[in-house]
């Protein structure tokens, strides 16, 4: 949005009319209440240091510019601090809208490699940040705790349950497909 | 009155990277007469930024599995992590209010013979400390007040936001977390950027650590402009990691050097309740391990542990 590259005019006849409905269903039901005041972007700590512009993404989404929204790398700069959501005079819940657009982006194959790794961690170990090797077990001992906490780190059957759930929801494929695409 | 019990949700960062917080929580809640029950087989909450951004139904399903563990035990949950709290509280709330989501989640849970019933509440340590133990009890338990110690706060985001849904505190002028921390006797130091995010959440730290650290650096600079502080206290281990280990990373990425001692609110209270730092391993914070240094004991008014004590457990 602040880049110097030439921008082409928006072709209003070539938009995705289903995109707004898709966002509403994916977890951003209030998107159509937006009247573009910009309170979200004015409050946004991510926007203060990156090209991430909440208002811009919501406007594009409302216009039906699906591909521009879901392929934008800036979409992933929101830290979900919810400051915009707390200040939005229209109760758009912009944070939820951004998360919904991210859901649609991931379904369409846009997933960053480090995020995919975190998702796979959960399927392999039950945790986004796994306990890991001996170093961390020793750290636990050092503070006077048992080597392994009573979570999935000491319960392989809990990991099995997570794998089954990911299979049931189709999440295993969502993560795995991306892995193949990367090749 | 029957002893208050909570299912203790650990998450990932506390037990796997900052176990001092886990140990401090056990000490503090025992001192306050609140029982923490191990939540066997709990998994990742799952991480709200990554999983919530990937697939809402999967996120809610894995969170619901954790909730069913507490439902089976018949006790409410408490957790010391803003991220875990966000996932578990939000999922619990959404599943209780969104029948379509609940049906989709229960269909998934059926494959592992579980069902979300919606019979428990999710709390944060901050809730348990403020609303269950209460400030009066906390004040009574303090034997080593942090007199003269300058304390900055980093409340973080997900305990109190979104405010209209969580209805816990005014996120623009919060007081609850501050009230608990001030009970320690330390002097609250306000700074302009106290309420901005640490930068780690929303899957940003995972994807782009330098951008995440830029938030943190802004907070540190804002605090220095306000005259600095001896400690920064937070109710979240992911924020603690970002503020603590983040100082080492900032040095690498920005060539700027900061030295702040960072504490989780239960670490602050463990010390204020008279526990020695080696009882829960305050010196195991990752900035000290990596920089091979120690907390500023003298500033904190704590006698420096001897080398033997520092490595001892219990």
Q: What number of domains of chain A?
A: 2
Radius of gyration of chain A: 20 Å
Please summarize the sheet with the most strands of chain B: 4 strands, parallel
Oligomeric state of this protein: heterodimer
Q: What structural category do the secondary elements of chain B indicate?
A: alpha/beta
How many distinct helices of chain B? 18
Distance between the termini of chain B: 30 Å
What is the CATH class name of the largest domain in chain B? Alpha Beta
CATH architecture of the largest domain in chain B: 3-Layer(aba) Sandwich
Q: Which shape of chain A, going by the Cα principal axes?
A: elongated
- DSSP strand content of chain A: under 5%
Residue fraction in strands of chain B: 5-15%
Q: Overall 3D geometry of chain B?
A: globular
Query: Segments of chain A where pLDDT lies below 50 for 5+ residues?
Result: none
Mean pLDDT level of chain A: 93
Q: What's the CATH topology name of the largest domain in chain B?
A: Rossmann fold
- Reading the helices and strands of chain B in chain order gives EHHEHHEHHEHHEHHEHHEHEHHHHH
* Intertermini distance of chain A: 30 Å
Overall helicity of chain B: 40-55%
Helix content of chain A: 40-55%
Account of the 3D structure:
The complex is a heterodimer of chains A (183) and B (314). Chain A is mainly alpha-helical. Chain A has helices spanning 19-26, 39-43, 54-63, 66-71, 83-87, 94-107, 113-125, 134-142, 156-169, 171-182. Chain A folds into 2 domains: 19-107, no CATH class; 113-182, no CATH class. Chain A contains 10 helices and no strands. In chain A, 45% of the residues are buried. The longest helix of chain B has 18 residues, at 56-73. Mean pLDDT of chain B is 95; it is low at 310-314. Chain B has helices at 13-16, 19-31, 48-54, 56-73, 82-97, 99-109, 125-133, 135-141, 163-166, 176-182, 204-207, 209-225, 237-254, 265-272, 277-280, 286-291, 297-300, 307-311, and strands at residues 5-9, 35-38, 77-79, 122-124, 150-153, 187-188, 231-234, 261-264. Chain B contains 18 helices and 8 strands. In chain B, the strands form 2 sheets. A 4-stranded parallel beta sheet of chain B has the order 2-1-3-4, sandwiched between helices. In chain B, strands 6-5-7-8 form a 4-stranded parallel beta sheet, with helices on both faces. Chain B folds into 2 domains: 5-125, Glutathione S-transferase Yfyf (Class Pi), Chain A, domain 2 (Up-down Bundle), CATH 1.20.1050; 144-307, Rossmann fold. Chain B is globular, with a radius of gyration of 19 Å. Chain B is of the alpha/beta class. In chain B, strand 7 (231-234), helix 13 and strand 8 form a beta-alpha-beta unit. At the A-B interface, helix 5, helix 6, helix 7, helix 8 and helix 9 of A face helix 1, helix 2, helix 3, helix 4 and helix 6 of B.
């Amino acid at each position: 949005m602040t880049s110097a590259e030439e921008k082409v005019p928006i072709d209003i006849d070539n938009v995705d009319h289903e995109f707004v409905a898709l966002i509403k269903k994916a977890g951003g039901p209030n998107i159509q209440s937006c009247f573009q005041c910009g309170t979200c972007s004015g409050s946004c700590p991510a926007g203060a240091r990156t090209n991430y512009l909440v208002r811009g993404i919501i406007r594009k989404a409302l216009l039906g510019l699906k591909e521009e929204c879901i392929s934008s790398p800036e979409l992933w700069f929101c830290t979900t601090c919810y400051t915009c959501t707390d200040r939005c005079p229209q109760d758009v819940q912009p944070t939820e809208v951004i998360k919904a657009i991210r859901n649609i982006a991931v379904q369409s194959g846009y997933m960053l490699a480090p995020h995919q790794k975190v998702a796979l961690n959960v399927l392999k170990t039950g945790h986004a940040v796994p306990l890991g090797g001996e170093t961390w077990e020793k750290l636990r001992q050092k503070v006077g705790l048992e080597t392994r906490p009573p979570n999935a780190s000491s319960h392989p059957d809990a990991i099995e349950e997570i794998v089954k759930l990911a299979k049931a929801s189709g999440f295993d494929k969502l993560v795995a497909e991306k892995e193949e695409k990367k090749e | 009155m029957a002893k208050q019990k909570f299912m203790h949700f650990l998450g990932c960062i506390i037990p796997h990277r900052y176990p001092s917080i886990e140990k401090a929580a056990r000490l503090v809640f025992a001192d306050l007469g609140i029982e923490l029950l191990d939540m066997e087989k709990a998994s990742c909450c799952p991480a709200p930024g990554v999983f919530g951004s990937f697939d809402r139904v999967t996120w809610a399903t894995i969170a619901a599995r954790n909730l069913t563990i507490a439902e089976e035990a018949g006790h409410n949950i408490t957790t010391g992590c803003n991220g875990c709290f966000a996932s578990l509280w939000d999922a619990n709330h959404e599943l209780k209010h969104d029948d379509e989501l609940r049906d989709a989640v229960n269909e998934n849970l059926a494959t592992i013979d579980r069902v979300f019933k919606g019979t428990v509440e999710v709390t944060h340590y901050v809730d348990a400390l403020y609303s269950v133990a209460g400030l009066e009890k906390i004040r009574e338990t303090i034997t080593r007040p942090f007199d003269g110690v300058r304390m900055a706060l980093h409340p973080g985001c997900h305990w109190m936001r979104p405010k209209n849904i969580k209805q816990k505190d005014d996120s623009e002028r919060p007081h609850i977390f501050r009230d608990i921390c001030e009970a320690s006797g330390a002097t609250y130091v306000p700074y302009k950027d106290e309420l901005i995010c640490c930068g780690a959440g929303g899957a940003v730290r995972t994807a782009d650590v330098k951008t995440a650290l830029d938030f943190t650096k802004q907070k540190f600079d804002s605090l220095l402009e306000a005259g600095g502080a001896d400690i920064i206290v937070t109710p979240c281990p992911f924020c603690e990691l970002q503020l603590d280990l983040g100082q080492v990373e900032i040095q690498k990425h920005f060539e700027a050097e900061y030295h702040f001692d960072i504490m989780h609110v239960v670490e602050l209270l463990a010390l204020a309740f008279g526990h020695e730092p080696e009882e829960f391993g305050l010196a195991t914070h990752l900035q000290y391990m990596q920089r091979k240094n120690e907390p500023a004991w003298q500033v904190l008014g704590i006698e420096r542990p001897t080398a033997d004590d520092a490595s001892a457990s219990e």
